Amino acid sequence: MHVHRLEKIFLGLGIATLVAFFAILVALQIGEGFTPPSHIQTIDPTKVSSTPPFDHPGLVRRADGSYEAYYVGQVFSWQPASLAVPRGAKVTFYVTSTDVVHGFLVEHTDVNLEVMPGWVSSGTHIFSKPGDYLIVCDQYCGEGHASMFAHILVK
Ligand code: CUA
Question: pTM for this structure?
């Protein structure tokens, strides 16, 4: 079989690109310790509503003055739908799902968590600016996906 010289070059470029991307993935995995954010805590997704602290989603104040916020995602809402924290609050979010994969994105922060049934994802943010922070679902989860949101009020 005769393969044209240009075809060989394009084939070579394609293979080289794949190898390079794979090498970058492996390097990030090893060098930066990139892992899914939810590999630490697991939960039975069928028993979320009876498993503390997710049986009472909401805010918990720690002894050091920071906060833990427990959220449950299910089609098509976040619980709690609204929370209020004082300006400067350091909030660590713990989020899980009872049904399908959701995405927990807190606008204007770098909290953007993949929320999978069976796992507890977490991320932390210090709310130094007051405002009404919108939480949206950024993983398509069904026909009500666009109405899956909540608010955090920072005063
Ligand atoms: Cu939940 Cu999209």
Answer: 0.76
